[in-house]
Amino acid sequence: MVTGRGSGTGGLAAPSQIRSRLPNTLVALFGAAALLRIGLIAYSDYQDRHAAVKYTDIDYVVFSDAAEHVAAGRSPYDRATYRYTPLLAWFLVPNLACPWFGKALFAACDLLIAAILYQLASAASDQTQSLNGGRFWLLVAWLFNPVVFVVSTRGSAESLIVLAVLAILLMASLRRAAWTGLALGLAIHLKLFPIIYSLPLFLYFGPRGRPRGVVATAARLWPSTSDQWWLISTTGVSLAGLTLVFWIGYGNEFLFEAYGYHFVRTDIKHNFSAYFYFNYLTALNPHESGIALLAGLIGFLPQAGVQLAAALALHRDLIACFFVQTLTFVALNKVYTSQYFLWYLPLGLLHFIRLSPWRWQWAMGLWLGAQAIWLGSAYLLEFQGLNVFSAVHLASLGMLVMHVSVMWLALALRS
């Protein structure tokens, strides 16, 4: 377990412990990963032009259209289905001149994520560990994971939020509370879910030692160190500053489309959530829309309870804490797709390389097996037109069981 100040082993470490140069083998590894992504980006143009099934994600078209709107002085929300921060549209304004720019940006984020993973893994493991050990295979598992490189080269922006989350972990490992707060504010602005990391980070930068009693525990929720005050202030400056700028520019429509929409969203297709069948049944009856909305809001309660428990129990080991928080947030969400897996995948890789090999082997087997079962039933439903909603529902429940099992493997009997 990690201590609050980064001493000890098994978690984050002090700055002196994470300064290392990438060996030539890793330079070659990064080079191969970059070439793979360049090749796929080039190929995507060919497939988009000549194949009935496009390689480029429809979201990338939405991003590019929104970028065109902001470049012309209009709102990105003039583009239907754009439900992201305007910052993303501004990032992709170069798409107007280079249509592949955004894909290259997201692919570059993949490589930056890998570099941070290597740094964090080096800090959390034995510095004498051979290159053929966990850190090397961690990079292989990220850089050459088909889900990772396909998502980014198709033009999905998930790598941006993953990069922001790992930047939070890196800054925390360096004990840079102010920079941690800036990264946290940016991450929350990009996607709401990183707000779950606020409490464990606050506690991590607080006094060491375990409080005894309810009163002492409650007292820890008031800032008592300069690091905690820096974290609070810079998070507020970063988040409030970005939000205020875009609210002034785009009004309440920005607040609803970027944030509010996700509280009322329902999706009965391409959805791994255990709420899948409920969403489907209520969608068939417009008179039950109020029930569906209420159930969706109530569905946040289990998430909130798990987040609080994880923050209180695991905040001294931020890698484990962030992984458990993100895993359970996704697993208990009322809507999630395969892209959501990228939110917890790098955190899981970081955590499991510190544990016995059998744990990650079982975790990977469960993860792949549950997805295979779900995808098989979803294929019969969506492409074969068979009435297998019950089978998809059971497969979605299986995904929930899988996530709970992976969490148990991550935490039970930790050495």
TrEMBL record:
Keyword Mitochondrion recorded: no
Keyword Membrane: yes
Biological role: Catalytic subunit of the glycosylphosphatidylinositol-mannosyltransferase I complex which catalyzes the transfer of the first mannose, via an alpha-1,4 bond from a dolichol-phosphate-mannose (Dol-P-Man) to the glucosaminyl acyl phosphatidylinositol (GlcN-(acyl)PI) intermediate to generate alpha-D-Man-(1->4)-alpha-D-GlcN-(1->6)-(1-radyl,2-acyl-sn-glycero-3-phospho)-2-acyl-inositol and participates in the sixth step of the glycosylphosphatidylinositol-anchor biosynthesis.
Single annotated GO MF: GPI mannosyltransferase activity
Pathway participation: Glycolipid biosynthesis; glycosylphosphatidylinositol-anchor biosynthesis
Transmembrane portions of the chain: 25-44, 104-124, 136-153, 160-178, 184-205, 229-250, 291-314, 321-342, 362-381, 388-411
The enzyme's E.C. designation: 2.4.1.-
Superkingdom of origin organism: Eukaryota
Membrane topology, as annotated: Multi-pass membrane protein
Family indicated by similarity: Belongs to the PIGM family.
Protein name: GPI mannosyltransferase 1
GO cellular component term of the entry, any: glycosylphosphatidylinositol-mannosyltransferase I complex
Residues making up the signal peptide according to the UniProt record: none
Predominant location category: endoplasmic reticulum
Keyword list, A-Z: Endoplasmic reticulum, Glycosyltransferase, GPI-anchor biosynthesis, Membrane, Transferase, Transmembrane, Transmembrane helix
Source organism (scientific name): Monosiga brevicollis
GO biological process: one example: GPI anchor biosynthetic process
Subcellular location per the Swiss-Prot or TrEMBL entry: Endoplasmic reticulum membrane
